[in-house]
């Protein structure tokens, strides 16, 4: 596929006796934002580490931007951006110093000042990293991930530990980057984050992709749950059922609710767990 | 090469900034004048002004080698402990180039010890050491700086191999000063130790530096300088070899920590 | 909590610290190799000068000062509570920060005594110092006294290091090298101008070293014990200074809440 940023077939990786990734297939199109959604231990981080040339694989075929990450050279690395956790030793540097420093490691970096402004830290450019909040520090991480002007950006559970406002602001930033044409591969276990950011979602569990597609494709909303005081029923003809109930109660049906399946329902079904009532 | 120069520059700037942010890393520069006082007081008290060049060269050598072991030796270890190493490995920059940049900065700064020693002699004891053979001195000093930087690379690579190895870091300095002939020429060591010392670039370098300060002609300068450069290159090769093995291990184990 | 219980607990904590600093392997093949090389390095100045008497003078000075070197590491180990993030807990605890910090680095006295004694005994025959069993034992006891009294100097540096953590090694090293230069280690104190001679007398290590030299030279016990007395007297002054500094740090920290959690 010419427009494939990432193409994975049969990816395998084990740590001793523990299988982290088992026969995983995945496609990421250029310019799209793909969220990989899965519980802890599903293989999300392992997959991302293999794709970003941080970890060798045991088997399978992988092409990232047309190249095999196992043979990653400097030119390959210059095309990727990885949003990793800000290193402790950098905390005494200012935002400007650290972004400028990492820009020096890339052959064609973006202007550090522009990058700092883009992540919303222009006012904090002269402040040391240790003086920033957790959300601000993560913005620095994003700045370091994009300063090299990457074609493909990896983010692994980027908003873990964020308060709701910080998460919203972070999403806004990622959307802006995606709008510029950067391909984004993001792992998360927050359903709302996947829904908010991703063009497509891939659900991973036990080292395998269970399903991949848009939210509409993943959620089978034909089966609707109609509940009322006397009971509930799942049906693909909710209108007919409501009409029937209305006739039976000769007026308002007490406690009537109509619930369409959510991404959460689809996710839980895919990873093999029942949704809570 | 196009990509290497900016990375080298970034690493040099980072190291200079690190010195500014943590003045404790310049400890050896703070202690160099004291070492000069100690050693020069011994030679002066003994009525041996002819040994003043020895007493003032030694602190400079000890400062430079000390910083190679203690500061340069810490670079990869600190970077790995703080996650900076893994962050660096995600970029296209070569660890070898970055390490060389940082250690070159450390070595260059450590050579300030020469000026400190000279000033202690001149201002504290009224002893002014002149360089009888300036070209020999300059060439040897450059070659010595290369060897010291190479030692820094080797230390940086070795000390990150494990906690057990790093526990020996503080123990390496004085053996190096002794076998390197920092103050006392290695010809005064027992035969076995002298032979061992000849495997170190430093023993050749200190002899040549001392000879360049003395009025007598410098014998076999070419061969001796070649020994300094050759052994320095061997040290660098060993250091970069260990470093490459380290990078392969880090990439194999995939220890990058994501956000 | 009573002082004896605190001291007992602190002593145990110090013993644990010692075991984390030294394993038998890194002590024997790391630290002691460095110690021996350091003492040889300075002793060989005498070889360079072609003066056997000078060589023995340097050997004794360099060996005894290994004990001083190790007890100066108290400056760094006093700050270990800070780097491990427990200093604020200690400040709030009833045990008394001053007593705990004053006692927790005791192990340097023991290890310094052992290192220095081994260096002196092993290298004495190499550099022509005639050291019989009685002289060796006397030297070990006096080295212990030197280490014990210098501990107060190390503690003083440690109290400063708590406030200026980044400079903890600078304080210790500058103080150690000052003592090495002026306290009769490499040259007799009489070499220096009068002002510096008086300055040197403030340090317990100057008296401890002098006591060792006198004992090895066969001086009478009174002269030796006088120097030991001066070592303890000056140490008392440093200990008072250290205690005041630690108490001031503790009071300041409680008042301002300025002790960080970790580094």
Describe the structure using short key phrases.
B: 259 residues, mainly alpha, C: 263 residues
Number of DSSP strand runs of chain A: 12
Kindly estimate the percentage of residues of chain C that lie in beta strands according to DSSP: under 5%
Uncertain stretches of chain C: none
Q: Give start-end ranges of low-pLDDT stretches of chain A.
A: none
| CATH-defined topology of the largest domain in chain A | Rossmann fold
Order of SSEs of chain A: EEEHEHEHHHEHEHEEHEEHEH
Q: Taking Cα atoms only, what radius of gyration of chain C do you get, to the nearest Å? A: 19 Å
Strand content of chain A: 25-35%
Largest sheet features of chain C: none
* End-to-end CA span of chain A: 42 Å
By CATH's scheme, which homologous superfamily of the largest domain in chain A applies?
A: P-loop containing nucleotide triphosphate hydrolases
In percent, how helical is the residue content of chain A? 25-40%
Q: How is the largest sheet of chain A built, in terms of strand order?
A: 5-6-7-3-8-9
Our count of domains of chain C comes out at: 1
Number of helices of chain C: 13
Largest sheet of chain A: 6 strands, mixed
- Tally of extended strands of chain C? 0
- Radius of gyration of chain A, rounded? 22 Å
Distance between the termini of chain C: 28 Å
What is the C-level CATH assignment of the largest domain in chain A?
A: Alpha Beta
Spell out the helices and strands of chain C N to C.
HHHHHHHHHHHHH
């Amino acid at each position: 596929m010419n427009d494939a940023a990432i193409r994975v077939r049969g990816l395998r990786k084990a740590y001793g006796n523990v299988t982290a990734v088992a026969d995983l297939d995945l496609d990421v199109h250029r310019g799209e934002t793909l969220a990989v959604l899965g519980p802890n231990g599903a293989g999300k981080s392992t997959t991302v580490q293999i794709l970003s040339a941080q970890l060798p694989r045991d088997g399978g075929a992988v092409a990232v931007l047309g190249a095999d990450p196992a043979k990653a050279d400097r030119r390959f690395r210059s095309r990727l951006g990885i949003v990793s956790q800000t290193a402790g030793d950098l905390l005494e540097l200012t935002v400007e110093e650290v972004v400028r420093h990492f820009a020096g490691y890339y052959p064609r970096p973006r202007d550090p000042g522009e990058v700092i402004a883009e992540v919303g830290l222009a006012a904090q450019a002269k402040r040391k990293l240790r003086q920033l909040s957790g959300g601000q520090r993560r913005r620095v991480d994003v700045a370091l991930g994009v300063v090299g002007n990457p074609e493909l950006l990896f983010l692994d559970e980027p908003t873990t530990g964020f308060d709701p406002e910080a998460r919203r602001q972070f999403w806004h930033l990622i959307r802006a980057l995606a709008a510029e044409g950067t391909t984004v591969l993001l792992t998360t276990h927050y359903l709302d984050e996947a829904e908010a950011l991703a063009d497509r979602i891939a659900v991973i569990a036990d080292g395998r992709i269970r399903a991949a597609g848009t939210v509409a494709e993943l959620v089978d909303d034909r089966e609707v749950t109609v509940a009322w005081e006397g009971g509930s029923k799942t049906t693909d003809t909710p209108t007919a059922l409501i009409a029937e109930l209305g006739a039976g109660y000769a007026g308002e049906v007490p406690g009537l609710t109509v619930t369409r399946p959510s991404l959460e329902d689809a996710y839980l079904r895919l990873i093999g767990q029942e949704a809570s009532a | 090469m196009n990509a290497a120069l900016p990375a080298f520059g970034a690493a040099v700037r980072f190291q200079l900034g690190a010195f500014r942010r943590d003045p404790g890393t310049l400890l050896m520069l703070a202690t160099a004048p004291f070492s000069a006082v100690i050693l020069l007081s011994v030679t002066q008290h003994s009525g041996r002004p002819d040994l003043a060049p020895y007493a003032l060269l030694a602190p400079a050598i000890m400062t430079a080698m000390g910083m190679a072991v203690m500061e340069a030796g810490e670079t990869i270890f600190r970077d790995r402990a703080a996650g900076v190493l893994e962050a660096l490995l995600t970029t296209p920059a070569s660890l070898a180039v970055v390490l060389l940049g940082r250690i070159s900065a450390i070595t260059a700064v450590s050579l300030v010890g020469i000026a400190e020693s000279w000033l202690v002699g001149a201002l504290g004891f009224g002893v002014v050491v002149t360089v009888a053979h300036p070209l020999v001195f300059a060439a040897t000093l450059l070659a010595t700086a290369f060897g010291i930087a190479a030692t820094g690379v080797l230390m940086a690579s070795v000390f990150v191999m494990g906690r057990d190895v790093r526990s020996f870091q503080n123990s390496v300095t004085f053996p190096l000063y002794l076998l390197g002939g920092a103050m006392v020429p290695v010809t005064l060591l027992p035969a076995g130790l002298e032979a061992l010392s000849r495997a170190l670039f430093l023993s050749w370098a200190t002899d040549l530096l001392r000879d360049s300060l003395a009025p007598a002609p410098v014998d076999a300068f070419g061969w001796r300088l070649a020994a300094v450069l050759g052994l320095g290159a061997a040290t660098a090769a060993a250091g970069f070899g260990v470093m490459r093995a380290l990078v392969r291990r880090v990439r194999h184990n995939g220890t990058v920590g994501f956000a | 909590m009573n002082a004896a219980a605190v001291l007992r607990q602190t002593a145990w904590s110090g013993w644990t610290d010692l075991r984390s600093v030294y394993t038998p392997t890194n002590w024997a093949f790391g630290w002691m190799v460095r110690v021996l090389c350091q003492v040889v390095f300075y002793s060989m100045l005498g070889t360079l000068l072609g003066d056997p008497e000078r060589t023995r003078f340097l050997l004794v000075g360099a060996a005894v000062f290994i004990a001083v070197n190790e007890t100066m590491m108290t400056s760094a180990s006093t700050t270990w509570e800070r780097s491990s993030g427990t200093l604020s807990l200690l400040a709030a605890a009833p045990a008394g920060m001053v007593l705990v910090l004053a006692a927790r680095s005791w192990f340097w006295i023991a290890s310094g005594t052992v290192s220095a004694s081994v260096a002196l005994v092993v290298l004495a025959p190499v550099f022509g110092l005639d050291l019989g069993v009685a002289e060796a034992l006397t030297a070990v006891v006096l080295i212990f006294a030197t280490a014990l009294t210098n501990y107060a100097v190390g503690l003083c540096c440690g109290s400063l290091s708590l406030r200026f953590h980044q400079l903890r090694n600078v304080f210790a090293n500058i103080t150690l090298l000052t003592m090495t230069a002026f306290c009769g280690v490499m040259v007799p104190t009489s070499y220096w101008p009068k002002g510096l001679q008086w300055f040197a007398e403030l340090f317990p290590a100057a008296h401890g070293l002098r006591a060792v030299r006198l004992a090895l030279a066969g001086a009478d016990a009174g002269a030796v014990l006088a120097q030991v007395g001066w070592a303890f007297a000056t140490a008392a002054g440093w200990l008072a200074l250290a205690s005041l500094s630690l108490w001031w740090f503790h009071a300041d920290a409680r008042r301002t809440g300025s002790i960080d959690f970790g580094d």
